[in-house]
Design goal:
two-stranded antiparallel sheet, mainly alpha, 30s ribosomal protein s13, domain 2
Length: 128
Amino acid sequence: MVANVRISGINLPMDKKVYVSLSYLFGIGRKNAKDVCIAVKIDFERKMKDLTEEEVEKIRSYIDKHFKVEGDLRAEISQNIKAKIAIGCYQGSRHRNRLPVHGQRTKTNAKTRKGRSAPIANKKVVAK
């Protein structure tokens, strides 16, 4: 039984199943979390609080060896985006203009990426 599990600087929730808790790490989803559990021979349906120190250490070492997570992954992603902006490719120009990158429509939707619409200045009001 462990009191607190910390992997790559993230405190994992203790009351959830192992594969759900591992998915709290940036770069590891549910599928990869289940793969980690299978690789280190831990039942992924167990709760995180039921693991022993040795099992937690196995998980930690496996993730460090086979995955790029948290800060390293975020740095690599931002580096890739900066490189695309620097070479001036189409995706880089979409990133620079804060528009959707992967071919989504922008006439409607895309509000998250574009932000709220700006009000149009000097719009005349029609008198009745």
